[in-house]
Amino acid sequence: MKINIGIIGCGNIAQSVHLPILIKNPDIKSIFVSDTDMRALENTCKRFGIKACRSFQDYRKFLDQVDAVFILTPPHTHHALVIDCLKYGRHVFVEKPLCMTAEEAVDIKKLAEDTGLIVETGYNLRFMPQLRLAKKLLKRGHIGRVITVNGYYLAEAAYMRENKTFYLDPDKGGGVLMDGLCHLIDISSWFMDSTIVEAYGFTGIYDDLPVDNIANISIRFENGITGHLQAIWAPLSEYLHTGDLKTIKIVGDQGVLAPEIYSGRIKEYRTRKGTHTIYPKNMDLRNPMWALGRSYLDQDTDFINRIKKGSNNLNKLKESARIVEILDSIKKYGAFKK
Ligand SMILES: NC(=O)c1ccc[n+]([C@@H]2O[C@H](COP(=O)([O-])OP(=O)(O)OC[C@H]3O[C@@H](n4cnc5c(N)ncnc54)[C@H](O)[C@@H]3O)[C@@H](O)[C@H]2O)c1
C-alpha cells in the first residue's frame, strides 16, 4: 500500500530536510505541498518537480487526498494545524516543539488519544546512530549505575539567518529555550527512560535580541536522577556540526559516556578500563553531517512505516507534551513541578 503525504509549510526544514527524503521514499505515491507564502510555494514546486495540481496556498484543499500531513511551520501555528488535521482524520508529523503552551499540549494529546491517529513530533536526535548506540551501551551497564546527566547544546544562531523572523519573535516560538533546549529535554528523558518531574531554570540574553539566546535548566527525573541542560545560540556555525560543542555527558558509578550530538562520535571513560572513542556501524567518517542526515532519514522513514503498519506510539506524544509543559512553565515561573 502506497500513501499520499501533504506538507504544510515549505520553508527551511521542508526544503533542506523533509522533502529531499520524502520524494525518495518508495512507500509514498504523491506529495502535496502548501504554504501561505506564494514565493516559498513556487520555489518548492520548481525545486522538487511538484505539479501545479498538488500545490496550494491553503492546505485544506488537499486534506481529502492525503493519509498524513507534515506540519513544518513556525511553532505558534502548530496547535491549530495539528487539531485541524486530526479532526479531518489524518496522521500528523509536526516539527518540534509540539506547540506553545501546556493547555495546547493537553488538547492535542486528548484528541490523538480519542482518534487513535499518530502524532509524531520532530525530535530527530533520538534517531542519531551514535545516541542509539550510546543508549545500548548504557543499558548493557557500560558505565554502571547512572548518577547524573548533563546536556550542552551550542546551536546555530538561528536569528542570524536571513528571513527567519519567527526565531526572533517570542509570540511565535522564538528563542533558544523553544528552539534548542526542547531537544535536550527530549534526548535526556529518552536516555534516562524517565520523565522529568521537577525543573528550575533561567533564560538569558547576551546581546540586544528580543528573545532569549541562553537557556539553562536543572532537572529531576521521576526515577530520582538529576541533571543540568544548557542551550545557547552561538555565532560559531562553522564548528557546530563537527566537534564536541553539542554533547550529552552521562555519568555513572563506573565511568562516563559522552556521545557528541552531531559529530557521530562517542567518548567513553571507564573505571579501570580506559578511555575510548566509539563510532556507530557504517559511519562515514569523512562526512561531518552523516549522523544528522541519518537521523532525519530514519525519523521520517519510521513515521511512514508506522502509518503503514498502523502502529502508534502514544508514549512518545506524552513525552512531547511534557516537554511543552516544562518549557511553558519555565518561561512563566522559572520552575516546573508535577
Ligand atoms: N528538528 C530540527 O532539527 C529542526 C530544524 C529546523 C527547524 N525545525 C522546526 O521546523 C519548523 C519550521 O522551521 P523553519 O526553519 O523551516 O521555518 P521557516 O520560517 O523557514 O518556514 C516556515 C514556513 O511555513 C510557512 N507557513 C507559516 N504558516 C503557515 C500556514 N498556516 N500554512 C502554510 N504555511 C505556513 C511560512 O510561510 C514558511 O514558508 C519549526 O517548528 C522549527 O522549530 C526543526
Automatic annotation (TrEMBL):
Domain GFO/IDH/MocA-like oxidoreductase residues, every copy: 132-257
Gene3D superfamilies given in the database record: Dihydrodipicolinate Reductase, domain 2 (3.30.360.10), NAD(P)-binding Rossmann-like Domain (3.40.50.720)
List GO molecular-function terms, semicolon-separated. Answer: nucleotide binding
Q: Where is the Gfo/Idh/MocA-like oxidoreductase N-terminal domain?
A: 3-123
The protein's matches in InterPro entries, at most eight in alphabetical order, are given as: Gfo/Idh/MocA-like_OxRdtase_N, Gfo/Idh/MocA_Oxidoreductases, GFO_IDH_MocA-like_dom, NAD(P)-bd_dom_sf
Kindly provide the name given to this protein in its UniProt entry.
Putative dehydrogenase
